[in-house]
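Below is how a single chain appears once it has passed through the pipeline. First comes the sequence as given, then the structure the pipeline wrote out for it. We keep one example in the README because the format questions we get most often are answered faster by looking than by reading.
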Amino acid sequence: MDLSGRTILITGSTDGVGRLVAERLAADGAHVLVHGRDRKRGNSLVAAVDKGGKGKATLYLADLSSLDEVRRLAKEVLADNKRIDVLVNNAGIGFLPAERRATADGYEVRFAVNYLSGFLLTHLLLGTLRASAPARIVNVASIGQSPIDFDDPMMERNWQGGRVAYTQSKLGQVISTFSLAEELAGGVTVNALDPATFMDTAMVRDAGLTPQSTVAEGADAILALAVGPQHATTNGKFFNGLSEARANEQAYDVTARAKLRALSRKLTGLGA
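Resulting structure:
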């Protein structure tokens, strides 16, 4: 596809599958808004895109464990860009550390980075996404999902380890995807996916897991939802790779959706 004139924001795009997605979108002419925490890695991606000579890239630095930094990121992106055609919420952390850690905001770190940051960023950018319609939102989740305990969503009383904290945060992304798809009145679509099982990334290797798929396979799946013509109107779906899949049953529970929506708006300060 010729993506000239398209502006695409990808969180967590200075490494791993996010970086490959950014490179491929820029190679097709897009203006890629690169996000990460490491300036050196970010600058290397911007330089690689500039060298390619077709699309362009702009780097934004933010630590998504801080909701204040998420707000700052949104403010900077909106100040610099009149349109956003695609938002890919890709940033995340895995099973490690195994012990429970809280962010400066007081939230469990995986719930904050993997879920709350994307929820807040999406809602802060939603006006511009609507104005850029047709636009798309892609939430990079996981097939590994565990039900959220709404009596203890931050696992303060019942810590079950980093793996469960991760899978709960990933289900949060899927539940929120389904909820937002119902709220959007058209023009903007939102879908979630597990790009590929245990891609060969630092996150997987650091957890001591054996990679089972390539980063390129994951990038193919993300790009299909982000810019593929076959998904121009696909909305409110969950995919495992390139195929539509069934999420954890809690994602289809309207009561759970309402509870997560209310909790997320409260924790992020968006209000009821």
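Strands lie at 7-10, 31-36, 56-61, 86-89, 135-140, 188-194, 238-240, 243-244.

See the next section for the split statistics.
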